[in-house]
Amino acid sequence: MSPFRWLASSYVLGLGVAVGITLALSAWLFEGAERDQRVQYERRLAQVEANSLAGALASAAPERIAGVLQAWQARHPAHESAILVGGMELLGSTKPEDAAPRRLGREEKPIFDLANLLRAARETNIGEGVVRKKLVNFDGSVKGAYVVTVPYLANNEFAGVLQVRIRQVADKRSAPSSLGGVPLWLPALLVAVALGALFRARSDLRLDLPRLLLFAAFLALTLAYQYQRMAAYDASDLDGARQVANAVREAVLSYGLPPEGAAAPSPWDTDTYLRPLGVVLGDGTLNESAHGALFAEKTRFFERSLWAAEVLGLVMLLAFLFGYMRRLGATLREHADAYAYVTPAMLGMLVLVFFPFLYGITLAFTDTTLFNESLPFAERWIGWDNFVTILGDFNLYERGPEGLIWNYQNFYWTLMVTIVWTLTNVAIGVSLGFILALILNTEDLKGKAIYRVILILPWAIPNYITALVWRGMFHPQFGVINQVLQMFGMAPVAWFDGVVSSFLTGLTTNGWLSFPFMMVVILGALQSIPKDMYEAAEVEGATRWQRLRHITLPLLRPTLIPAIVLSVVWTFNMFNIIFLVSGGEPAGANEILITKAYKIAFENYQYAYAAAYSTVIFVILLVYGVFQTRVTKATESF
User: Fold this and answer.
1) How far is residue 349's CA from residue 519's CA, in Å, rounded to a whole number?
2) Whole-angstrom Cα distance, residue 28 to residue 25?
3) Which has the minimum average pLDDT: 131-145, 252-266, 431-445?
């Protein structure tokens, strides 16, 4: 066999593809992890600076605040600025243009609001006895700098905040693309050529020696690369920890030992909850065993990702070794025209549907908000916490002096409103649609075509236009509905001030929009029922009710049930009507799950919590769809 035929072997191709995919995924994971590592250590260094400076200011007399800040700026000329805020006052600043102390200006309201936020977080942690609110704020929206805000304590009481702006370090290190100076593709090619002569194009399922050798070659190449990169990643992490330890040591030289002493964990090297990490001691000594434990905890998710890349490569190799890829290739060649036609649609679905869907589910397992989306992914990963918070909140109501006070922000209240909303709307749509379809199916009905056009108009008009029109009609002062009520001597109704009346505004609007669809679907199904069945039943003496019950409804079932399932899904997620008509008023009592998820994401900026909300919605609808189709056997013909 010539070398060219060796290279053409499907086994050799499989080894190359499997190794290439695994190494490419591993390189991508390492590059992301190394980038996150650099960001993390720059943030830790910035936090050490902020924490140590806040500690020095807390122990300084008010008249010495300006001197401490200026001395800090002189020692760190590369840092941009530091400002100290207490209440409505600017207590100190390193900016030459700031004459402190002075009252905060209107343009400085964001730092005043941030101070109140950190104060509330600290009081919550102290009051509950559980540290669950973050006390350090990183603003990732400032390009080229880290803006760190930490509490400023006087006599161990919250007195304001210290905000430090530190320039980012430009780190242009690139991930290595070789194994000990040898390009990654070269060993894969040499092994493939050397083993290529051992194989023939077989598709049996035996694990013979040549295939085992290929497995060994794959594992040797990929694991060697991952081991080499992991060792470099470990060494880089240890170097970053030593830099943090040096920063703590420099702070000790500048401000003296912290009150906890030299042997205790440094109170300046903390997480965002101001809890010492325990890696650096009070005098700046690095505790390497604690660092190793923290590194192992931090990289657990990353190592699992590397194993996932390894498994994917093995699956690809198996597909080549046992002939599945060869069969797939033959199928693609045989039906090349058909696959060429569907490829654009498949790519569109992948980019526009599946990727956002998977990204949303992944986002649901983090604590991503507007303020921390620039943080490394590993720092935002919180697992199932969002789902536990959503599904574990049973605070549905409280007992007050005037009776029960319902918690309209509770998930189960919103779920109950969504279910009631869906059931009532589907019932109205199906009932009206069914009745109108029966009327339009009447033989010799004059003007049938005109009626069809008129009745389908609500569905033809864009629903957001219809929603805005109905909202105007329900306006408490100028709406036509209240005008009509007043014509008959009745008092106008404040439609959006009551829970029930506000719910009725959305129910009326959506009922107006939903019946044409059901009418068209049912009418089409009615016209497909053979007339001779009705004639035979009539000859046998069946009444209209009996004909409806024993002929019409059973024959409508294969059409009606899927339409109802579709209508349930549409109504469950009917965002436009709730958002545009009632807005969920009053006080969010009439929100449904989809509008609540939207407001959590784009009004509260809690992206991960909103993603978890949306995932719960998807699971509810998935379970309903599967249950409904299996119980009703809607997809089976009769």
Assistant:
1) 31
2) 5
3) 131-145
Degrees, nearest 5: CA angle 154-158-162: 80
Domains in the chain (CATH in brackets) are 3-40+184-341 (no CATH), 53-167 (3.30.450.20), 358-392+606-638 (no CATH), 411-597 (1.10.3720.10)
The answer to whether the pTM exceeds 0.90 is no
DSSP-derived letter for residue 192 is H
> What is the predicted pLDDT for the residue at 1?
44
Q: Which residue has the higher pLDDT, 320 or 559?
A: 559
Cβ neighbours around 332 below 10 Å, total: 12
Contact call for residues 441 and 523 (beta carbons, < 8 A): yes
Q: Vertex 470, ends 465 and 471: CA angle to 5°?
A: 95
Q: Is 392 helix (H, G, I), strand (E, B) or coil?
A: coil
Asked whether the beta carbons of 151 and 122 are under 8 A apart, the reply is yes
Rounded to an integer, what distance in angstroms lies between the CA atom of residue 32 and that of residue 301? Answer: 13
Pull the structure tokens for residue 508.
């009326």
The DSSP H or E segment spanning 90 is strand 89-93
The kind and range of the H/E element at 200 are none
Contact in structure between 458 and 511 (CB atoms under 8 Å): no
Round to whole Å and give the CA distance between 46 and 38.
Answer: 12
Which of 506, 510, 503, 520 is closest to 559 using CA atoms? 520
Q: How far apart are CA 571 and CA 404, in angstroms?
A: 29
Unique residue bearing structure tokens 């569905």: 459
